[in-house]
Design brief:
three-stranded mixed beta sheet; single chain; Peroxisomal Thiolase, Chain A, domain 1; alpha/beta
Length: 390
Amino acid sequence: MWGIAGYSTVNAGGRGNAQSWNSMVSGQTGLRRNALPWCDLDGWIGEVEGVEDIELPSALRGWDCRNHRLAWMALQGDGFATAVRSAAQRYGPHRVAVVLGTSTSAILSTERAYAAWKRAGEFPPDYAYRRSHALDALCRFVACALEICGPMVTISTACSSSAKVFVTAQRWIDCGLADAAVVGGADSLCLSTLHGFDSLQLIAPEVCRPFDANRKGLSIGEAAGFILMDRQPGAVNFLGGGESSDAWHMSTPHPDGQGAQDAMRGALRSAGLGPRDIGYVNAHGTATPANDRAEAAALGAVFGERGVPVSSTKGVTGHTLGAAGIVEAIAVVQALEQGRVPPSANLEQADRALAIDIVETALRLPLRHAMTNSFGFGGNNCSLVFGLGQ
């Protein structure tokens, strides 16, 4: 097992761990109808308040973009930077790895740069692709911000990106490349994802309602989150993860959730647990008809019909794409710490055709182990198991 030595998140549900968790456990959505001045999409989004007002320290201004402002907000919250400094002092800054996920990186900065080029025939003088939109920019920014210099990698596998980081970090720690790892990710709102998902007819005209009988699609959100994994066990631990690539379709899941089943079973094997050991599953739960149906089929195949309490927190945060894995992993850590299970927010009428135990109101449960699912386009699937320490 690998200890959780600190964590921090910002998302539409709140800035910081306490606000985020309070929104999730109360089922209070952070989604709002889109009012972004640079996007005319008619729909609901999960915007993090105050991103535009963030000023990076002078030493980091060359990295300025919306994605890194989100990351900075999370890095400064809940004593996370202090926890990383402590690990760096204990092991050495070269022994703290950085393993992060993102789907689009800082693509908004490139979108704005091309808009400026279209108007003026040249890119803005402050546009720096290598320090914003390049896929490794997030890792390098976080390493600079935290003053650590261990091995680093960015994982970009769509919506499973910041879930897969746990499995990679675990392998690095196990094989001696690092003693601790900053894992997580960030994805910010941008035109490409908002209009891209809209072109696939996946954006709901109203607030998203995971597992609802009348669900109509997803709501896009933005978020950043980080966890410090340590080779020493803690009060809550990462116990194992399972990955699969079913390659069923570019944007549609296998109808029986075959790849999702493989990922969940792999996570259980890795953790040395059986289905009955899991007390709660934070589902991928995007609120699209096909995704929720396929995930419910997979959950039924692994845990039995209505065999484990299931909820989706995307009704609070929106679908944060490459940041979904870390946001929901943190929600599972908090559920274990608090002994509470958050409901599926915005639920009006649970879809009884889905043979799962959908959590409609927050529950108090004596949790020992819990799972979170993250499934991405192209069949990039990842499930993670966390548990309380001895």
